[in-house]
């Protein structure tokens, strides 16, 4: 029955192990030891070669070292190639600041990847089972995970040059314990698995038994839910990827800009997943504190009637709404003001990536929003600076002056862009030009002839 379940599960998943070399991650506990033993018994029938890998995290001193020796002896008796490594996890935690569970996982997987590369192995097999699946799904739902994370533990996923597989997800903890008993495997028991300190242990001891008491097929139902959700999620993500180029107006390293009107025109399930795709792009590693609540906050911001707003996400990611655009900026830092003087002709590269060029020209010259003609008698030095409180410009055809801040609002300039938008004045502080937006009464028309001062403002 045990063998048939695993064989049928692999067949249903369309995974053929024949002729493959498989590394089994072995802690010495019931799950991993049973998996190692099971695959070892199938070497001849399935034409596979089994290897074993073990990491001693040095968390429990002599006790964890004895577990390593136990696994080593187990492998020697069966001629299973065995690789192991001792990693001082407490020191690693102190150095990286990770919690103990994440640090242990990081160290293990790094070791497994190294061994797979060294022996050119095809698969890393891990002993997760159906009860683990229940625990994982419930923990992630409780934590507020979104997307494919809610589907729990995948049967297969890429790892290094090969794949991770979990052949025992079709089984339950009791099935594995029975297998160990029948084959006299005598697995080691980690006493920390009984402590209520870890949230997974609490789910294992109290929640899973309750669910199984309610329905003895709970593990099968959770596994089916996991697989269906994973399939649905994969399909929806494909659809979202097709829409992403439609809603993105800008995509740079550590920054993305979304057209809100286009975003709101697509189906809500795809909206959520487009946000997920953007977060996947910006984050090297998704923060554990990021949850579905953050996605919901962004959805509310996108639909808000207000023209501006912002949300702070983990690890320095800022989400800012400005009129019809939503800006995602990682490692956002407030723009510093600038102040430059040009005492003669020349060029200047501004912090926003635009270039200011000042030169004299003779004769007519056609002007647009990116250049201005001024009388050559304008007093130098020219000042190129960021805005100041109370800035006003005297526009052509207008009595009196208009606030620069009002112009930014009327032109719907995003708030974060206003902070480093250049203002050009003469030596007396009179605003001559807001490049790309408005010209003052001092500018000439394109029909003017004679000697003029030409200032251009273009992207470098």
UniProtKB/TrEMBL annotation:
GO terms assigned for molecular function: ATP binding; tRNA(Ile)-lysidine synthase activity
InterPro entries, per the entry: Lysidine-tRNA-synth_C, Rossmann-like_a/b/a_fold, TilS/TtcA_N, tRNA_Ile_lys_synt, tRNA_Ile_lys_synt_N
Pfam families: ATP_bind_3, TilS_C
An individual GO BP term: tRNA modification
Binding annotation for ATP: 27-32
Location (main, coarse): cytoplasm
Enzyme's top EC category: ligase
Domain-level remarks: The N-terminal region contains the highly conserved SGGXDS motif, predicted to be a P-loop motif involved in ATP binding.
Free-text function comment from the UniProt entry: Ligates lysine onto the cytidine present at position 34 of the AUA codon-specific tRNA(Ile) that contains the anticodon CAU, in an ATP-dependent manner. Cytidine is converted to lysidine, thus changing the amino acid specificity of the tRNA from methionine to isoleucine.
Family: Belongs to the tRNA(Ile)-lysidine synthase family.
HAMAP family: tRNA_Ile_lys_synt
Protein name: tRNA(Ile)-lysidine synthase
Organism of origin: Niallia alba
């Amino acid at each position: 029955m045990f063998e048939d379940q695993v064989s049928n599960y692999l067949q249903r998943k369309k995974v053929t192990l024949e002729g493959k070399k498989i590394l089994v991650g072995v802690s010495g506990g019931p799950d991993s030891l049973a998996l190692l033993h099971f695959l070892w018994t199938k070497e001849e029938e399935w034409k596979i070669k089994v290897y074993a890998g073990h990491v001693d995290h040095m968390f429990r001193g002599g006790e964890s070292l004895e577990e390593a020796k136990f696994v080593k002896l187990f492998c020697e008796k069966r001629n299973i190639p065995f690789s192991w490594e001792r990693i001082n996890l407490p020191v690693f935690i102190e150095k990286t600041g990770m919690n103990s569970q994440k640090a242990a996982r990081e160290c293990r997987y790094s070791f497994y990847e190294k061994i797979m590369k060294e022996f050119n192995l095809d698969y890393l097999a891990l002993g997760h089972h159906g009860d683990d699946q229940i625990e994982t799904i419930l923990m992630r739902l409780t934590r507020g995970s979104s997307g494919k994370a809610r589907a729990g533990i995948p049967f297969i996923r890429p790892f290094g040059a090969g794949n991770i597989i979990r052949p025992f997800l079709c089984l339950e903890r009791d099935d594995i314990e029975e297998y160990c008993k029948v084959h006299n495997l005598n697995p080691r028991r980690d006493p920390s698995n009984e402590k209520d300190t870890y949230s997974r242990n609490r789910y294992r001891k109290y929640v899973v038994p309750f669910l199984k008491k309610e329905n003895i097929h709970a593990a099968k139902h959770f596994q089916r839910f996991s697989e269906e959700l994973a399939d649905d999620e994969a399909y929806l993500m494909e659809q979202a990827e097709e829409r992403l180029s439609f809603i993105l107006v800008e995509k740079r390293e550590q920054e993305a800009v979304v057209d809100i009107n286009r975003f709101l025109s697509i189906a809500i399930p795809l909206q959520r997943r487009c946000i997920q795709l953007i977060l996947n792009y910006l984050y090297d590693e998704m923060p554990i504190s990021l949850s579905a609540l953050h996605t919901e906050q962004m959805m509310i911001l996108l639909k808000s009637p207000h023209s501006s707003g912002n949300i702070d996400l983990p690890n320095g990611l800022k989400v800012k709404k400005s009129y019809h655009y939503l800006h995602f900026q990682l490692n956002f830092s407030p723009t510093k003001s600038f102040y430059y003087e040009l005492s003669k002709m020349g060029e200047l590269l501004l912090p926003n990536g635009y270039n200011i060029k000042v030169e004299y020209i003779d004769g007519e010259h056609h002007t647009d929003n990116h250049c201005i003609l001024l009388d050559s008698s304008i007093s130098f030095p020219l000042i190129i600076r960021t805005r100041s409180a109370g800035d006003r410009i005297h526009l052509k055809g207008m009595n009196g002056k208009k606030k620069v801040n009002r112009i930014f609002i009327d032109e719907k300039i995003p708030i974060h862009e206003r902070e480093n938008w250049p203002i050009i004045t003469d030596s007396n502080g009179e605003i001559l030009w807001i490049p790309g937006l408005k010209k003052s009464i001092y500018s000439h028309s394109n029909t003017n002839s004679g000697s003029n001062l030409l200032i251009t403002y273009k992207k470098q």
